[in-house]
Amino acid sequence: xxxxxxxxxxxxxxALSRVVGLFxxxxxxxxxxTVAPTEDETLSRLTMTTxxxxxxIEQITxxxxxxxxxxxxxxLTEGAHIEREIxxxxxxxxxxxRAEVKRTVDIFRGQIxxxxxxxxxxxxxxxxxxxxxxxNAVGETQVLEVVRSGVSGIARGEKVLSL
Amino acid sequence: MEMLxxxxxxxxxxxxxxxxxxxxxxxxxxxxxxxxxxxxxxxxHILVRHEQAATHAADGYARATGKxxxxxxxxxxxxxxxITGMATAFMDSIPMVVLSGQVRSDWIGDDAFQETDMIGVSxxxxxxxxxxxxxxxxxxxxxxAFYIASTGRPGPVLIDIPKDHTAPNKTFPFEYPKKVKMRSxxxxxxxxxxxxxxxxxxxxxxxxxVIYAGGGVVQGEAxxxxxxxxxxxxxxxxxxxxxLGGFPGEDRQCLGMLGMHGTYEANxxxxxxxxxxxxxxxxxxxxxxxxxxxxxxxKIIHIDIxxxxxxxxxxxxxxxxxPVKQVLDDMLEMLNEHGGEPDQKALERWWQEIEGWRExxxxxxxxxxxxxxxxxxxxxxxxxxxxxDAYVTSDVGQHQMFAAQFYKYKRPRQWIxxxxxxxxxxxxxxxxxxxxxxxxxxxxxxTGEGSIQMNIQELSTCLQYGLPIKIxxxxxxxxxxxxxxxxxxxxxxxxxxNMESLPDFVKLAESYGHVGIRVDRFEDLEGAMNEAFSLxxxxxxxxxxxxxxxxxxxxxxxxxxxxxxxxxxxERT
Lengths: 163, 573
Description:
The structure holds 2 protein chains of 2 kinds. By secondary structure, chain A is an alpha+beta fold. Helix content of chain A is 29%, strand content 40%. Chain A has 4 helices and 9 strands. In chain A, strands 5, 6, 7, 8 and 9 form a 5-stranded antiparallel sheet that branches. A 4-stranded antiparallel sheet of chain A has the order 2-3-1-4, with helices on one face. The two termini of chain A are 28 Å apart. Chain B is of the alpha/beta class. Chain B has 3 domains: 3-173, Rossmann fold, CATH 3.40.50.970; 193-360, 3-Layer(aba) Sandwich (Rossmann fold), CATH 3.40.50.1220; 375-552, 3-Layer(aba) Sandwich (Rossmann fold). In chain B, the strands form 5 sheets. Chain B has a 6-stranded parallel sheet with strand order 3-2-4-5-7-6, with helices on both faces. Chain B has a 6-stranded parallel sheet with strand order 11-10-9-12-13-14, sandwiched between helices. Chain B has a 6-stranded parallel sheet with strand order 16-15-17-18-20-19, sandwiched between helices. In chain B, strand 15 (391-394), helix 16 and strand 16 form a beta-alpha-beta unit. The N and C termini of chain B lie far apart (72 Å). The A-B interface holds A 9-10, 13-14, 17-18, 21, 25, 55, 58-59, 62-63, 65-66, 68-71, 163 and B 119-120, 123-124, 127-129, 131, 133, 148, 182-185, 306-308, 311-312.
């Protein structure tokens, strides 16, 4: 089952390599990974998506918690949560396709953020499912380049991940 | 406030931590620190002959005393040579602080002479590591390193120090922190009392209980509590390779070691148990055999300081995360306060069954009629000659298993071996660490002609510091355990397991300035042992030739349950 694990860790050199190293060392899989400092500059927030059954996820979270630099950790998929990913994508926009791509972008509530005579650069935000649906809708043959941020997530309601 | 250079701060911080010995080897990047060491006499530096030996010596010291072992090495090859010893300590949860030199901070990343990314290389085998980025941080980093290494589940901690941060001409105010505060590191200090209560209730209901005690009992100083609890309940106790000595080996309730080369009675009892109390053990593959067939009828109570060790390989029915000592003490207190007796009748039947198993096998082996010595006889003679009191370190292989099976350890920290990583070359340097910790103690290193050659150069260190270690080299002219597997699983094809052209170990010991004794016949064994141990202030290298065809039994049959064992070359369960 797919999980979103969100980690608060010390914003120190080398901390990220320990998290990533743990995954390769123990044979766990990272699907997406995103990391940036928080409002407290001594802390980084790292969000990763991974796969595994309950036992595996329990082991992953236990081992992550053992890393000295990991301050707090939550498996967002255990409760209601909001997840977002941002995608930038260059799409062929020539001939009849030009209008068709524009319509598809509007349907998905994306934005065209750059234009040339043959290419649209599209920005789209949403869940992983939505981004994939958009790629399918545009058609893979039209896609020139895709860059995705990886999943970020936050719990719904009043729950916060902070010190 | 006192002004010190980075190098002086390193040395002062080690003094503040009460460090007696640093095991190390100098080199370019640590020269400033070595100069600061030279100008003080509170911390002694032990000059080994190879950095791997420095880590094993520090490890042996830590295993024997419970205090962190300290290592100092230079950058590059010095640091990478220390990796095997750090990995060894990591697998067996041994507290250790390793200080490695690094090239100047402005050269890092430029492939400078003797530069290695030590933080990166060591990452999977340390509990934590620090890179000194500002000399002012040295006192705090050292304080944290010792704290992390020795609390919770202990382990090695690395401090990588670029050379320019120890320069003698730059000084900084020095104050050693009294306390450590880390928001991201808070090891558990108490097990959950509700879980402990549930465990006690389960223990009292048990009809076929086994206490399965691991290295956590030894490292966590829980031996006394364990022994008292086992005696109070009259439960059988089996120890892991790492846990030997955690319960007295000659005690009637001791079933000896369990697992791949465990005793018949220990493995049979485990398989037939209805309740297993796993204390400071991690149910690893050398114990469980096939996890799917592991102890089918048992409820498992698992105590460990490390939550990640619980339910990793085998699901625990009652998990208790906490220090083994406190949890066992609390269990005993609950039993004493609230009364409650285990089912005596059931226990009586259980003990009868166990005694039957004990009689059936009892670590029997065939004695050779032509007088060719058996390795088992060597360990038994050692046991007799030392009255069961010696510190015994070992290397890795058949001799290690024989030393685990046939020497009955009386007390924790008496048996010192590389259990998790299985590091050949561990025995002699770890014996050095033990002998430094206890200069008057009898220290024996049980080894083989394969393992001893992996750190033989330390004979030179032993002479320099006058360490009267007794080396028991069980010489079968082969890598015995490899050969055994080749006999059993590869049709007897001894691929690269025979040691041809061995040195004359007696002459070799003599050339290093020690005493060498060669023993070929069993009838000479006892006399030779007594002679060796009577030379109290000399290192004696006993080169003892044994039957190269002997195997270690019992031995788990791969993919089977705990009760599936080879009992000799021809019999199986």
